[in-house]
From TrEMBL, chain A:
SUPFAM superfamilies: Tryptophan synthase beta subunit-like PLP-dependent enzymes
Lineage summary: Bacteria, Bacillati, Bacillota, Bacilli, Bacillales
Pathway: Amino-acid biosynthesis; L-tryptophan biosynthesis; L-tryptophan from chorismate: step 5/5
Gene giving rise to this polypeptide: trpB
InterPro entries: Trp_synth_b_CS (IPR006653), Trp_synth_beta (IPR006654), Trp_synth_beta/beta-like (IPR023026), TrpB-like_PALP (IPR001926), TrpB-like_PALP_sf (IPR036052)
Protein name (database record): Tryptophan synthase beta chain
Family: Belongs to the TrpB family.
Record organism: Halobacillus salinarum
Subunit structure: Tetramer of two alpha and two beta chains.
Enzyme class: lyase
Function: The beta subunit is responsible for the synthesis of L-tryptophan from indole and L-serine.
From TrEMBL, chain B:
PANTHER family assigned: TRYPTOPHAN SYNTHASE ALPHA CHAIN, CHLOROPLASTIC, TRYPTOPHAN SYNTHASE, ALPHA CHAIN
Active site positions: 48 (proton acceptor), 59 (proton acceptor)
GO molecular function terms noted in the UniProt entry: tryptophan synthase activity
Keyword Amino-acid biosynthesis: yes
InterPro entries in the record: Aldolase_TIM (IPR013785), RibuloseP-bd_barrel (IPR011060), Trp_synthase_alpha_AS (IPR018204), Trp_synthase_suA (IPR002028)
Top EC class of this enzyme: lyase
Subunit field text: Tetramer of two alpha and two beta chains.
Pathway(s) where this gene product acts: Amino-acid biosynthesis; L-tryptophan biosynthesis; L-tryptophan from chorismate: step 5/5
UniProt family annotation: Belongs to the TrpA family.
Name of protein: Tryptophan synthase alpha chain
Role description: The alpha subunit is responsible for the aldol cleavage of indoleglycerol phosphate to indole and glyceraldehyde 3-phosphate.
Species assigned in the record: Halobacillus salinarum
Length: 397, 265
């Protein structure tokens, strides 16, 4: 039996906790109390699952990638199709859960931060659906990279607030969202998009995302009558991976988290937090992060705006330390190659984030036995990345 | 009822304290020394020496800009602590509180951090993202090293106020308003009720910070709290003189001093 994390202090072993200004301690306690109460309320759980199904489009499919399996000539490859969620990514699961909680707490205004825009779109969507006001903080560089998602958020009625500090990416947007929350915590609910931040966020987001793993388990047992040998998911902050892995932690399945190696983990341009980072505090949580020798947080890089984050969820840090999950890193180019291969063999264009998980799985599939099975979490669809893909791949297409 | 002050005996009074904040290395380490001297002349009782940080969650744009300038000048936690003996050499006698976010301390290591504070003669430490629940070991270590660990309470600390206040050392930092640091046009009258409540429990002077930007604010707070903490406004005064500091340093420092006196008179 695995130890239950987080503990009462919000710790996952050595990691997690609440490293925030005093002003946020009250609101975090209020959130924790409301969350615990909601999770014990069968009516809340029922409503959450009801919205996931009749609005979000769950359960998402489990697809056998037959062509790909044939081509790679190794383990049987299955895809968990989070790209088929309404709005095109797993982010909606969590946004629905937190929006319902915000309403239950009587908060009418939500704030969110976003990198690739998928969490921003999911937040703006649930805000529209549940009649909440929504502000989305987004780095200027990400606004440039994700023009389409910015427009979607605005169309949904959200206010997109550009953040110019730092590199103008997710880290900076998160800082700004937290600062805004500090000043407006009395009537605003901060809808965090990944398993990061101070307790109880990592636990809450994991619990709202575990539907991915729970569903996968049922579906896999149905089609294969056994559990997969290996499960792959990409890791930025790590919410899709945590949601997929959590229900499998006590099983035999090998779990593989895939980080962004950007231009290579031996270059300064990557976002491989566990592979290259060290323990420290970022955005209110003790975890692994990318930093210099003086403890200043350094800027990450990835072709994928969704993985471009210098920290990682504290539960991943614990799973890394305990070696329950193996973490690998793949480069921009490897991810793009995997994206092309999936697109051409299966007719599915994945998000560049998800392509990182695909790349690592493809590297390993050929070396596995034909009776073995692989499950890859396809966290989102590639529509939002078309501008980046056109720039990088147009000549090859 | 205030029963003790300490900072190794260097804080000579418990009322009417003026506690300014500057960022070490903004815009250069040499100028930080000059500002500290001017602040002491203007009546500062304790100096909060801020360590610049890349991701300061409790700070508004003014202090963020100062941190950026200081990081560009090569400042670090280690160098900020090493600035203390240089301040002393130039005549700064008031207690110095190192104001730093937790991550740089964690990278240096608690033992090394406290050893450096002792060796370099800093009397206090304030870590805005290390709340009461996360700071038990750190507070203990501060006590063992005769360093005052400054605690903060906020208007929404509610039941936490008593627990935090009772363990307060040095002075208790009352955050005047929800929000990050930065100048404000108005100071809410509600802060006065909050101060009274905090004073009921605090064994050390209660000082108020966040948003104190005018002489009227200073006077209002002084009537109720034991001290005022001024950060962003002082940073702004420095910022206003950035050009002058390069070209006509003494005149720029004099203008800074004049504005400062107006602020705290």
């Amino acid at each position: 039996m695995l130890q239950v994390f987080p503990d009462v202090k919000g710790r996952f072993g050595d990691f997690g906790g609440k490293y925030v200004p005093e002003t946020l301690m009250g609101p975090l306690q209020e959130l924790e109390d409301a969350l615990n109460e909601a999770m014990d309320d069968p009516q809340f759980i029922e409503e959450y699952h009801h919205v996931l199904e009749e609005y979000g489009g769950r359960p998402t499919a489990l697809s056998f990638a037959g062509q790909l399996t044939k081509q790679l000539d190794g383990a049987k490859i299955y895809l968990k199709r989070e790209d088929l969620n309404h709005t095109g990514a797993h982010k909606l699961n969590n946004a629905i859960g937190q929006a319902l909680l915000a309403k239950r707490m009587g908060k009418e205004k939500i704030i969110a931060e976003t990198g690739a825009g998928q969490h921003g779109v999911a937040s703006a969507t649930v805000a529209a659906k549940f009649g909440l006001a929504c502000k989305v903080f987004m780095g200027e560089e990400d606004i440039r990279r994700q023009e389409l998602n910015v427009f979607r958020m605005k169309l949904l009625g959200a206010e997109v607030i550009p953040v110019s500090s730092g590199n103008g990416t997710l880290k900076d947007a998160t800082n700004e969202a937290i600062r805004y929350w500090v000043a407006n915590c009395e009537d605003h609910f901060y809808l965090i998009g990944s398993v990061v931040g101070p307790h109880p966020y990592p636990k809450m987001v994991r619990n709202f995302q575990r539907v991915i793993g729970d569903e996968s388990k049922r579906q896999f047992l149905e089609v294969e009558d056994r559990l997969p040998n290996r499960i792959y998911a990409c890791v930025g902050g790590g919410s899709n991976a945590m949601g997929m892995f959590y229900p499998f932690l006590e099983d035999d399945a090998e779990l593989v988290g895939v980080e962004a190696a950007g231009k290579g983990i031996d270059t300064p341009e990557h976002a491989a937090t566990l592979s290259k980072g060290t323990p420290g505090v970022i955005h209110g949580s003790l975890t692994y992060l990318m930093q210099d020798e003086n403890g200043q947080i350094t800027e990450p890089y990835s072709i994928s705006a969704g993985l471009d984050y210098p920290g990682i969820g504290p539960e991943h840090a614990q799973l890394f330390q305990s070696k329950r999950v193996r973490y690998e890193a793949v480069t921009d180019q490897e991810a793009l190659d995997a994206l092309k291969l999936l697109t051409e063999t299966e007719g599915i264009i994945p998000a560049i984030e998800s392509a990182h998980a695909l790349a690592q799985a493809f590297k390993e599939a050929g070396g596995m036995d034909k009776e073995d099975t692989i499950l890859i979490n396809l966290s989102g669809r590639g529509d939002k990345d078309m501008a980046t893909l056109m720039q990088r791949l147009e000549e090859e297409v | 009822m205030i029963t003790k002050t300490s900072f190794q005996g260097k804080l000579t009074k418990t009322k009417d304290l003026f506690i300014p904040f500057v960022v070490a290395g903004d815009p250069t380490p040499e100028l930080t020394i000059e500002f500290a001297l001017r602040l002491q002349e203007a009546g500062a009782d304790v100096l909060e020496l801020g360590v610049p940080y890349s991701d300061p969650l409790a700070d508004g744009p003014t202090i963020q800009r100062a941190a950026k300038r200081a990081l560009d000048s090569g400042m670090s936690l280690r160098k900020a602590i090493e600035l203390v003996p240089q301040l002393r050499k130039r005549g700064v006698e008031i207690p110095v509180v190192i104001f730093t976010y937790y991550n740089p301390v964690m990278q240096l290591g608690h033992d090394e951090f406290f050893a450096m504070l002792s060796e370099n003669g800093a009397e206090g430490v304030l870590v805005p993202d290390l709340p009461f629940e996360e700071s038990e070991d750190f507070r203990k270590q501060a006590e063992e090293n005769d360093v005052e660990f400054i605690s903060l309470v906020a208007p929404n600390s509610d039941q936490r106020i008593q627990r935090i206040a009772e363990k307060a050392k040095g002075f208790l930092y009352c955050v005047s308003t929800l929000g990050v640091t930065g100048e404000r046009n108005e100071m809410s009258k509600e802060v006065l009720t909050f101060i009274e409540k905090v004073k009921e429990y605090s064994p050390v002077p209660v000082a108020v910070g966040f948003g104190i930007s005018t002489n009227e604010h200073v006077k209002l707070v002084r009537g109720h709290a034991d001290g005022v903490i001024i950060g962003s406004k002082i940073i702004r005064l420095i910022e206003n003189e950035l050009d002058g500091l390069e070209k006509e340093q003494t005149a720029a420092l004099d203008r800074f001093t004049k504005e400062l006196h107006e602020l705290v008179k």
